[in-house]
Automatic annotation (TrEMBL):
The chain crosses the membrane at residues 28-49. It is a multi-pass membrane protein. It holds the Pfam family SDF. This is Na+/H+-dicarboxylate symporter. Keywords: Membrane, Transmembrane, Transmembrane helix, Transport. One of its GO terms (cellular component) is membrane. One of its GO terms (molecular function) is symporter activity.
């Protein structure tokens, strides 16, 4: 729980101590490129693994054996929620609650 605020503080202090704006720009560009490349690689790995493993291919569920009452309960809960409530619930109340 304490790790995220510590890392955030270290990054902010490191950026604040950089006096050369060119160096800060290079670090920022490198960070964005690093993030984009790793995110794309993770996405490609996930697609390849999902294509090879084919999750859910061996599950032969008979639709008549499913309980419609359970689904109706979820549908009723979803109807009562609004888009504004959804966004308000995903934003944490405190900085510590976010980690």
């Amino acid at each position: 729980m304490v790790v995220a605020p510590v890392i955030f503080t270290i990054i902010v202090i490191g950026i604040a101590r950089m006096s050369d704006m060119k160096a800060l720009g290079r670090v920022g560009l490198t960070t964005v490129l690093y993030f984009e490349i790793l995110t794309t690689a993770a996405l490609l790995i996930r697609l390849v693994v999902a294509h090879i493993i084919e999750p859910g291919a061996g599950t032969n569920i008979d639709p008549s054996s499913l309980k419609a009452d359970a689904v109706a309960g979820f549908a009723k809960t979803a109807e009562s929620q609004h888009l504004v409530d959804f966004f308000l619930k995903i934003i944490p109340d405190t900085f510590v609650a976010a980690s």
